[in-house]
Structures are given as structure tokens and as C-alpha cells.
Specification:
The complex is a heterodimer of chains A (about 800) and B (about 300). With about 800 residues, chain A is an alpha/beta fold. Chain A contains 35 helices and 20 strands. In chain A, strand 18 and strand 19 form a beta hairpin. In chain B, the strands form three sheets. A nine-stranded mixed sheet of chain B has the order 7-1-2-8-9-10-11-12-13. In chain B, strands 3-6 form a two-stranded antiparallel ribbon.
């Protein structure tokens, strides 16, 4: 088994052998596709023709929970399966079907699921036959079809240009939410059913409200039945089991399942089980992702403390349960179209779980569970849950130090969130301080208030700023596709200001369009992603009688994802200095060199000049200020944008900004020609707000200094910064102390968040050569982690290209 | 106001004193250690470095200074004594295959750069280290910079080989918080063999620093085949032991060959053989000696 970071067990309560077995099983798991959910949903939908869509969805959900195959993971203290086998991805035909059918055997020019060069899925003959058999039923009647019917020609053209990407929101569910875990652990599902029934007694309800409450009841009853099915299965397992310890565990689990959520959770173990079950139930109801655990150490604290005081569990047992729960997260899966997979590599589910940080009252909430969770994540050593830590001026050094030890293992976790900045960002949106202090990451780096935020804190339409800037250079026309959607001045830009105004015009043009595309997707999702189960655990759905998407959420704060701000800023800096200030080269010379992809002798020389202009990430004001301008040019636009839910229920409805960009910076780069910062055509854009790969040459403090100049507290849906350190830089106690100091200084510097890969290039290269021996190598991809060997080659290269800070 | 001749600033430097530091590398040294890892910092002038791996043999530089640069398959052959204008060579290259190391800077400008990392120094109890080369050869400049840093509450360390007049060193000490003092050898002849200078001044200076109760970190670089004579090493520990409790730390710096590529880039010859490395046995022997003199050591990896 892996070594503990600091934990010293005093009892034998952690079965290390079985933990290793379970961990290894998940580490070596093979992705496949499961057709059960699709078949059961189809069966149910056929019987409910003509009923309100939300009722049809609730009935299909309950039907699935009553009939899908369930199994117990033999080494686990946590039960619950999302699909018929380990790491199988269920299919959600109501969201989209055509690409699934195409990719089963590679029809219509697509690549089959099992022949991909990243995120491969095995698919059995039976599964294929099942899915072919239901294709006609769904074809033309899915969320994707609805979106496609409504997309404007202009949006399609912008997508062709490579500016807009609607992958996630146009063909799958939303996700990106955190249920009110404290409330549901306290009440149990039965209480919500009771509430819904009480509401239904009221005779002034609208049709929408009646349908919502009815759907909540159907969904929760289905979930309770699901638990009782496990209870029966566990009893059977108990009878067959020979090992007395395991037999007793089965008995306990069976008892737990029997009445689970009929009332409150009774124990810490049950609390963990419920958290996990709610998590997978959300992922059976919808194929969104980023269904998150939120502030696990905070809401589990009462149950933990009670069980410890009453000697129901030991600290060691608690660590074992948490670790099992963490490991089980890797048994779940999601399949995306191959085209979208490029944006979202490594089978990510982005199930964020956070520890530490202020309480709603403003005190530091660090507790014993915060430490145990870090230890558990170390033992888990897998990409899920996406493990994060909040910290602030009052966070104990010992917790930061333990986090640093986990970071040092190279697993890329936790990612570190700065309370001082994240809270300010939310307060500035109008969110009451008490709620802002209770924030958590939702998915990658996007933040929101658990139990109160609606879907999609981030991840609406993706906008490729590298491409927008390229279009500005070519006066409105995309040089690659030849598509021109608007006009900019036809003459060469004669001053920096002319260029800057053109950027602002282009950015507004495409951002407006992205909001339009958000709205089209949102309108369709309101119907097809109707999710009574997930909605009822979030304020104010139960009060208002509507799903989150219909306006049931208390805070409706969403954001798009903007990719490549540093590419734009660095390019502007090069142009400003070389063409307008020093007049070393002309506009034409630069454009010729770009069109030439820096290849001819003259182009090469121009590239050299461009490379010598300071780049973002080196604490050089002349360029850092321009990157800041780029951020501000987008922030200025946001107050004018409205969500579809404005005025329909939420107390706050608005857009904010996020640079959470998953792996999109790699495929976005494919579409963009050479840029004036010296970047070659087709190479990746910069990631989040991180410096462009390998251009930060002045060490990690300079990166922090540069990033600290950005309006980080206005990027209220998450500012992504990724850094890489050589393993030696954190080796030994002294270096660890210095790294802890580095984290604390970053806090004072006003960094929003930071995450680290502590891996050498050699290790990554070795893993490329010998993937089978490196299946356990987990890396930070973007705001999430993934198995390095599961990534496509370009994404692997982009990670290796990040500057490795050595000392 | 004097200008200093410095090379690079190393940010997030963790090996040259306590906490997170920025190390300033000064150009110019009056020792000639065979193993020097920073050969670009020896002569007190700007240097032209040539990176063969970036060069595409385009010949642009050779056209500019044909008498000094010739193009061969293995790259440019440069006779640095015949170069007229190194700045122009750097500018003409389309691939950034040339770089000048060394720039003149005022103390005020330098300190402004250093202050950018103030938060990191404060949180980590770190600061600034002047290293090189030997910063003592630019003592007036160092003094001015150190005083400016102190006005800003920044901890200042000085990394020196100590081969200067005591009066110069003494004059500076009040503006320095910590001295990182290198001792290469005790026996003067042995010292001369390795560094081309004898060490009477060096030994005297470190003793005097100790008498003034200045905090000292002693740094012992160990280069097999050059200064690894165990008898001499033992004498080094005798000396350290005699300096008393102002010695706060002793670092063993094992020889590394990371500087070797710089010799090629500068057109210089490197005399340390390729397979030179500190064996575990040697490290163990040093530990034993240190132990016998009651000196705690840190061995750098």
C-alpha cells in the first residue's frame, strides 16, 4: 500500500491489502459502454407518450432505478453503481443519439469508440445491437436535435471558423451543481417527498409546479427503491460470505441501505454512502458532468464527531471509509462524442470535493476531517474525486503543509483556492457574504455556493480568443475557412489604438453570439435536461416548484469559457512594440511572416524579434498590462448579458467570467494559424490564465507576480493557473517549507487559485513510451486531473511543454 | 553612482540562504577554480554565449564578422578575440543562437527588480543573496544595493570566496545579514592548484568575520580529484570548529557538471573529466570527519 503522508494508525481498522486491491482495480479499469439505461429509458418513454416531459423523465428515472442491474464491489465499504459494470458509461438517448450510433462502428466517417487515440471505450456486440434498435425511436427527438433546429446560420458559421464550440451544452446535460448536502443528510429523501406532497395540496399551483412536485415524488421514490434493492442484494451477499469480518460488514451495509434516506443519515459511514449515492443518482438522471461533493469536511463533521465521541468508529476506520468512497468515484464514467472528447480528455467527471476554508461565519473551518481527506486522497491516487483545498490567512500551516506533501507526490492535487479572492468575487456579484464564504469549486476551478447555485457556473459556449484575434489580424475574415461574418477596417491598422478597437469590436461580436448560442442551448435544456432529482436539493427549487433550469435556483450565475487570453496579450505586446513603438518591422512584414508560419529566412528573423519581446508570466509590466486589458475588454461586456432565467425566480441572475478551459486550449490551437507572439500554426493556445507553454522563464514568483496583476477577483467563475515544478524543487523538508511559503505568498498576492504538476519531463516521456507501466501516473490536465496515458498525444505534449520550474 | 555588472537574477532561489530568495549573480571573480560552474562570471566583462543547438548554420553572423566567425557543419567557430561588436552578432541571428551575459545596472534599478518578490521573502523569511562571480569585487555597488534593501526590510546575504582586503570586507559587513563563505581548501599550495590563488587572505578573513560574530554559512564544494584530499578536508572542519557558534550552517556542495555546457557556449575548455562525481563513500567519509569535529552538515543532492 502507499505510505501515509503523516497519518499514524494506532489500530488495525484500515485493511491495507483490500485497499490496495480496490485501488488497483480502479487504476486498471477499462472503459466500456452500457446500454441498460438507454433501453430502460426507451421502454419507459414508449409508455408515457403525451405526458409532460418532466414527468416522462422522472418515470424513466424511477423505472431505471427499479430495474437496472446492481452489484456490490467486493472489496468496498461503499456500494452503488452507475451502470451495469465497473467504469461502463451509460447512454442518455434523450440528449443526443446520432453521434452514438455513428461511433458504434465508425459510420459516416466517424472513428469507432474502440479505435480512438484517447478516451477509448469498448463496446460489446449486444450493446451495439441494443443501441441500434432504439436509434430510430430517438432520432430527431433529442436535445441535440432541438438545438440544431434553432441554431442560427451565423452561429454555425462561427463554429466552422473555430471561434465557437458548443460541444457540451448542445448535446448533453448540464451538471455543474452541488446539492445541499447538509440539508439532505439532515432530512432524508422522505422529508422532501412529504414537502412535495404538502405543496401539491395547495390549489393555486401552476401546471409547471404541479408537474415539478409530482416529478420530485416519482424520482425520490425511485431512489428509495434503489437503496432497498441494494439492501436485499447485501443480505444475499452476507449469507454467502464466509469471512466473518466481511459478513458483518455486509450485514451493516444491508441494514444501512434498508432505510437509507427514509430519515436523516445516522452515522458517518452512512453519510459517506449517501453522498456517494446522491452523486451517482445525479449521473443516472442526467449526463452532465461536474456533479460535485462540495465542502465534504464541513458537512460531514457533525456525523464524524458524534461517531468518534460515541466510539462508533475510530479515526482509522473513518479514513478507510473516506478512501473507499473516494476510490469508488473512479467506477463511474461518461462518454462524449469524439469531437468533444478532444476538449475534455482523460475520462473526466470533474467530481470536485473540497476541504478547508472559511465557515459561513467567517472563521477558518479546518477540522480533523480536512486532514483525513488529504490522507485519503493520497491513498486513492486516482484522478477522481477532483480534490481541492480552500485556504486563507487563518488556515493552519499544518494543513497547507499536508496539502503540499500531497502535491509533492505528483498527483496534481489538491488544487488550491484562495478564499480571500474567491469570496470577494462572489460578493461583488451581489451574493451575501455568508453564502459567499461558503463557496466551493464546482467541477474544475469554477466556484459557486453549494445548494444554491444553478447549473453551469461555467462551461457554456467556448470562445476561442486565439481565433478571434487571428480574424482581427485578417480584418474580419478567417484565413483558414475564408468565412467572414462581419467587417473591420480594410486598411492595415495604422495605430495600436486602431488594432485595439478592432479587437474590442470582434470580441463583442463573438461574445454576443456566444450568449445567443447559450440561450438556444439553455432553452432546449430546460426541457430535455429537466432534472427533478438534482433540482430538489438546491434552493429555491422546492419553494418555487420548478427545476433549476426553469428558474428554481437561488443564484443563477453562469459563464462561458474563454480560451487564449495570454496569446492575445502577448501578440498585442509584440505588435505594439515592434510595429508601432520601435518601428522595427512593418505590418506587412509581420503578416507575411505569420502567413508563412515563420518558415522563410525573413520570417524566421521576424519571429526572433517577436520572441524577444517580453511575454506574460515574467513579471514584465509592458506585457502584463496588455493581458490585463484583454481581460477587461471582456469583463466590460458582461453587465449587458442576461440569462434566460432573469426575472423568473433566481435572486441573482448574471454572467461572469471564467478561464476554466479543460483541454480546449489544445484543439482550439489546431484551428489557429501562427500568431504574432511567435506561436506556430496549430500549436496549443495558453491554458487558462497560465503563461503560454515555456515562455515563463523567470521562475515561479514571476508567474505569480504577473498573474496577480490580472483582475482575478472579477473572474468570479474561476481563474485557472497551472504550474509545473521539478520533483527536486519540493524534495526534503526545507524545500517543502519554502513551497508552503510560496503558497502563502500567492494568497497574499491575490492569486485566485493555483495547481501543480510535480513531475519531470523524463518521467512523462517514459510514460509515453511505456504506457502500461505508467497507468498510475495522474497529471493535472487543466482544472482537473487525469491518467496521463489516457490523454491524446497532443494533450500530453502540451503538458510536457509547460515550463518545469527547477531550482 | 556606480553601476554594477551583473549577469542573471535567479528567482525562487532556495539554495543560497534561508527562505525564498532572489540570487544576484555578479560578473567578475579573482579565483580561477577549475570546476567553476559559472565560467561566464569569471572575467569582468560581458560575454557572448553561443547555443549550437539553436544555430541553423545560416551564415548571417559570419557575413557580418567573417574574420572572427566561420561556419562549419558542427556550428559556428568563433574567435572571440577578433569580434568587433557582439551586440550586432546577437541582433543579426535569426534564431537567438547568441546571447550576451552581463549587463550594467544601477543599484536602484536592481533593487527595484528585487523588491518585486518582497512578499515571497517576507512570508518565507527569505531575502536576497549576492553571489557570482564574487560580488566583493564590486563592493561599493554591493554596499549601496544592500543598504537600499535594508531600507525596505529585506534580509541580505553575501556569497563570497573572501579573497579580498579585510578593510573592504569589513566595511561591508554591517550592511550584510549573513555571509555564505566558500572554503575550497586549507593548504595554500593545494588551494593554488585548484584555484590559481593561495588562500592566506581567505582564511584570515573568515576568522575575522567570526570574531565579529557575524552569522556564517560555510560552503564546502567537493570536487573529486581536485580538492577531496581527506587530510585537507579534516583541516577544513578544524577551521570550522574553531570559528565557534557564529557558524549557523555548513553545506557540502557535491560537484555537478551542470556548468560544463557553458564552457562550450563560451568557447572555453573544460578540464574536469566527464565521469567526475562524489561517491557515496566519500560523502560518508566527510560525514564521519564532520561528526568527529562536532559539526552538523547538510549534504546537497
Amino acid at each position: 500500500m502507499k505510505q501515509f503522508l503523516e497519518f499514524e494508525p494506532h489500530t488495525n481498522d484500515i485493511d491495507e491489502e483490500r485497499l490496495t486491491r480496490l485501488q488497483r482495480k480502479m487504476s486498471n479499469r477499462v472503459a466500456s459502454i452500457c446500454s441498460q439505461r438507454a433501453m430502460l429509458y426507451t421502454e419507459s418513454f414508449k409508455k408515457t407518450t403525451g405526458e409532460p416531459y418532466i414527468i416522462r423523465k422522472a418515470k424513466a428515472f424511477a423505472h431505471t432505478l427499479e430495474n437496472m442491474s446492481i452489484f456490490i464491489e467486493e472489496d468496498s465499504l461503499i456500494f452503488g453503481n452507475q451502470a451495469s459494470s465497473n467504469f461502463a458509461a451509460p447512454i442518455f438517448p434523450e440528449y443526443s443519439i446520432d453521434w452514438i450510433i455513428d461511433e458504434l462502428d465508425g459510420r459516416n466517417g466517424s472513428i469507432p469508440f474502440d479505435k480512438r487515440n484517447g478516451d477509448v471505450f469498448q463496446c460489446s456486440k449486444k450493446v451495439k445491437n441494443d443501441l441500434y434498435s432504439i436509434a430510430d425511436y430517438w432520432h430527431g427527438h433529442t436535445h441535440e436535435d432541438e438545438v440544431q433546429r434553432n441554431l442560427t446560420d451565423e452561429i454555425r458559421q462561427a463554429a466552422k471558423q473555430g471561434v465557437l464550440h458548443l460541444g457540451g451544452i448542445s448535446m448533453s446535460g448540464d451538471g455543474h451543481i452541488v446539492p445541499d448536502y447538509p440539508a439532505l443528510l439532515k432530512h432524508g429523501f422522505r422529508w422532501y417527498i412529504h414537502e412535495a406532497k404538502e405543496k401539491l395540496k395547495d390549489n393555486i399551483l401552476s401546471k409547471e409546479q404541479i408537474d415539478f412536485y409530482t416529478a420530485v415524488i416519482i424520482s425520490l421514490e425511485g431512489a428509495l427503491t434503489f437503496f432497498k434493492r441494494y439492501s436485499c442484494l447485501l443480505k444475499e451477499a452476507e449469507q454467502k460470505e464466509k469471512d466473518p469480518k466481511r459478513k458483518q460488514e455486509y450485514a451493516q451495509m444491508a441494514k444501512m441501505a434498508e432505510n437509507m434516506m427514509e430519515g436523516p443519515a445516522h452515522s458517518f459511514w452512512e453519510g459517506c454512502e449517501v453522498a456517494y449515492m446522491v452523486h451517482i443518482l445525479q449521473m443516472i438522471e442526467s449526463n452532465g458532468h461536474s456533479f460535485c461533493y462540495g465542502r465534504f469536511d464541513q458537512y460531514m463533521w457533525d456525523l464524524y464527531q458524534k461517531d468518534i465521541i460515541n466510539k462508533i468508529i475510530s479515526k482509522e476506520k473513518a479514513l478507510e471509509i473516506i478512501t473507499h468512497m473516494f476510490i469508488m468515484n473512479s467506477s463511474n464514467n461518461k462518454v462524449r462524442p469524439y469531437g468533444h472528447t478532444r476538449f475534455s480528455q482523460g475520462y473526466p467527471l470533474y467530481s470536485n470535493l473540497v476541504v478547508g476554508g472559511y465557515t459561513p461565519e467567517g472563521k477558518d473551518g479546518t477540522n480533523e476531517l480536512s486532514y483525513l481527506c488529504i490522507e485519503a486522497m493520497n491513498l486513492t491516487a486516482l484522478a477522481e474525486p477532483n480534490f481541492s483545498m480552500r485556504y486563507n490567512k487563518n488556515t493552519p500551516d499544518s494543513l497547507i503543509r499536508l496539502a503540499a506533501k500531497l502535491i509533492r507526490t505528483g498527483c496534481g492535487m489538491p488544487s488550491m483556492f484562495n478564499d480571500e479572492i474567491a469570496v470577494k468575487g462572489l460578493v461583488d456579484l451581489g451574493i451575501p457574504k455568508k453564502d459567499a464564504l461558503d463557496y466551493c469549486p464546482i467541477g474544475c476551478v469554477e466556484t459557486g455556493v453549494p445548494g444554491k447555485y444553478g447549473h453551469r457556473a461555467t462551461g457554456m459556449t467556448y470562445v476561442n480568443w486565439g481565433k478571434v484575434f487571428e480574424i482581427v489580424l485578417f480584418h474580419g475574415k478567417d484565413p483558414k475557412t475564408g468565412i467572414q461574418l462581419f467587417h473591420l477596417q480594410e486598411n492595415d491598422y495604422a495605430t495600436y489604438d486602431e488594432l485595439w478597437q478592432a479587437w474590442k469590436t470582434a470580441l463583442k461580436f463573438y461574445s454576443d453570439m456566444a450568449v445567443e448560442s447559450d440561450n438556444i442551448c439553455d432553452a432546449s435544456l430546460e426541457i430535455y435536461d429537466a432534472d427533478p432529482f438534482a433540482s430538489c436539493f438546491i434552493d429555491n427549487s422546492m419553494k418555487l416548484g420548478k427545476t433549476l433550469k426553469a428558474g428554481g435556483c437561488k443564484y443563477d450565475v453562469i459563464s462561458q469559457s474563454n480560451i487564449g487570453p495570454v496569446i492575445v496579450g502577448n501578440s498585442l505586446a509584440a505588435i505594439k512594440k515592434l510595429i508601432f513603438k520601435e518601428k522595427k518591422i512593418t505590418w506587412k512584414q509581420l503578416m507575411d511572416a505569420i502567413k508563412d508560419n515563420w518558415e522563410s529566412a525573413e520570417s524566421m528573423y521576424i519571429r526572433k524579434l517577436v520572441l524577444n519581446v517580453p511575454k506574460f508570466g515574467n513579471d514584465e509590466d509592458e506585457v502584463d498590462d496588455l493581458v490585463k486589458d484583454v481581460f477587461n475588454s471582456y469583463l466590460e461586456l458582461l453587465p449587458h448579458y442576461k440569462t434566460l432565467r432573469t426575472g423568473k425566480g433566481p435572486e441573482i441572475s448574471c454572467y461572469t467570467m471564467s478561464t476554466s478551459n479543460i483541454t480546449s486550449y489544445v484543439p482550439n490551437g489546431f484551428d489557429v494559424g501562427a500568431t504574432p507572439d511567435g506561436r506556430f500554426a496549430g500549436s496549443p493556445l495558453n491554458e487558462g490564465c497560465s503563461p503560454t507553454q515555456s515562455t515563463d522563464t523567470h521562475g515561479p514568483t514571476a508567474v505569480i507576480n504577473s498573474v496577480s496583476k490580472l483582475p482575478n477577483d472579477k473572474v468570479a467563475a474561476g481563474q485557472l493557473l497551472n504550474m509545473r515544478f521539478a520533483p527536486g524543487a519540493l524534495a526534503g523538508d526545507e524545500n517543502l517549507d519554502k513551497f508552503v511559503a510560496f503558497l502563502k505568498a500567492s494568497l497574499l498576492k491575490g492569486i485566485y487559485h493555483n495547481q501543480f504538476n510535480v513531475l519531470s519531463s523524463e518521467t512523462l516521456r517514459e510514460a509515453q513510451k511505456d504506457p502500461n507501466n505508467y497507468r498510475d501516473l495522474i497529471v493535472r490536465v487543466a482544472g482537473y486531473c487525469a491518467q496521463f496515458v489516457s490523454l491524446m498525444p497532443e494533450a500530453q505534449e502540451a503538458i510536457i511543454a509547460r515550463t518545469e520550474n527547477e531550482l | 553612482m556606480n553601476k554594477g555588472l551583473i549577469s542573471t537574477l535567479q528567482h525562487y532561489s532556495t539554495k543560497d540562504g534561508p527562505g525564498i530568495r532572489t540570487t544576484v549573480f555578479f560578473v567578475g571573480c579573482n579565483l580561477r577554480c577549475t570546476w567553476c560552474a559559472n565560467p561566464e562570471l569569471i572575467e569582468p566583462t560581458k560575454k557572448l554565449l553561443y547555443y549550437k543547438q539553436h544555430c541553423i548554420r545560416c551564415g548571417t553572423c559570419s557575413k557580418l564578422e567573417p574574420h572572427a566567425i566561420q561556419i562549419f557543419e558542427d556550428g559556428c567557430h568563433i574567435d572571440r578575440t577578433k569580434l568587433h561588436n557582439i551586440q550586432k552578432i546577437v541582433e543579426c541571428c535569426p534564431k537567438n543562437a547568441y546571447e550576451i551575459k552581463g549587463r550594467e545596472i544601477s543599484a536602484k534599478d536592481l533593487v527595484n527588480l528585487l523588491l518585486r518578490d518582497k512578499t515571497f521573502y517576507e512570508v518565507s523569511n527569505g531575502g536576497v543573496t549576492f553571489s557570482g562571480g564574487d560580488p566583493m569585487l564590486q563592493a561599493d555597488f554591493v554596499k549601496e544595493a544592500a543598504q537600499l534593501l535594508h531600507q525596505n526590510g529585506i534580509h541580505v546575504a553575501l556569497d563570497t570566496a573572501g579573497n579580498v582586503q579585510w578593510s573592504i570586507l569589513k566595511n561591508l559587513l554591517q550592511d550584510i545579514d549573513l555571509i555564505l563563505f566558500d572554503i575550497k581548501a586549507i593548504d595554500p599550495i593545494y588551494h593554488k592548484k585548484c584555484t590559481e590563488v593561495t588562500n592566506e587572505k581567505i582564511i584570515e578573513n573568515v576568522k575575522k568575520i567570526a570574531q565579529l560574530k557575524k552569522d556564517l554559512w560555510i560552503r564546502l564544494v567537493i570536487v573529486p580529484g581536485w580538492n577531496d584530499d581527506l587530510e585537507d578536508i579534516e583541516k577544513r572542519f578544524q577551521l570550522i570548529n574553531s570559528l565557534g557558534d557564529c557558524v549557523k550552517r555548513v553545506d557540502i556542495l557535491k560537484y555537478h557538471n551542470l556548468g560544463s555546457s557553458k564552457y562550450e557556449q563560451l568557447g572555453l575548455k573544460y578540464s574536469i573529466s566527464k565521469d567526475t562525481a562524489c561517491s557515496d563513500t566519500l560523502v560518508q567519509q566527510i560525514k564521519t570527519i564532520a561528526h568527529s569535529y562536532n559539526v552538523k552538515i547538510n549534504v546537497d543532492n
